[in-house]
Q: What sequence folds into this?
C-alpha cells in the first residue's frame, strides 16, 4: 500500500475500525504486518487453499498459518465455498468462516428491502 493509504488505515483503526483483507494469492503472508494494520479477517479462496493443501507439506503449512492467525487474533474466511467437497477438504484446518453459493446465493432484493425497512423505522421513531 502507498503511504497515504496506510495513513488513512491507521487513522480509521484508531477510531476503532477493523478490516478484512481479501484477494490474497501469495502463500507468504506477513501476519505481523496484518495485525499491525488492524486487519482482523483475511479471505482466502477455497480452491487456492485446497491446491496448496494438496501440495507437498501443504497441509502442514496451512495448519501452521491457521495457528499463527489464531495467535494474532485474525479470523480466516474461506470464500468461494461452492461445493460440499470443499467443506469436507477444509474442515481439518479449523477455518473460522465460510462464504459462497453453497451457503446461499446473494439476494440483492433482500438487501434493498432490509435497507428500506431500516430507513422507514428510523423515520417513524
A:
Amino acid at each position: 500500500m502507498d503511504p497515504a493509504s496506510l495513513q488513512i488505515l491507521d487513522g480509521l483503526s484508531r477510531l476503532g475500525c477493523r478490516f478484512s483483507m481479501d484477494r490474497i494469492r501469495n502463500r507468504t503472508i506477513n501476519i505481523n504486518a496484518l495485525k499491525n494494520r488492524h486487519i482482523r479477517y483475511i479471505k482466502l479462496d477455497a480452491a487456492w487453499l485446497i491446491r496448496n493443501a494438496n501440495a507437498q507439506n501443504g497441509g502442514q503449512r496451512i495448519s501452521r498459518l491457521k495457528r499463527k492467525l489464531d495467535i494474532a487474533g485474525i479470523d480466516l474466511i474461506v470464500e468461494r465455498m461452492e461445493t460440499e467437497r470443499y467443506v469436507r477438504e477444509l474442515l481439518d484446518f479449523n477455518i473460522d468462516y465460510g462464504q459462497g453459493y453453497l451457503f446461499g446465493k446473494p439476494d440483492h432484493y433482500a438487501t434493498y428491502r432490509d435497507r428500506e425497512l431500516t430507513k422507514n423505522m428510523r423515520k417513524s421513531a
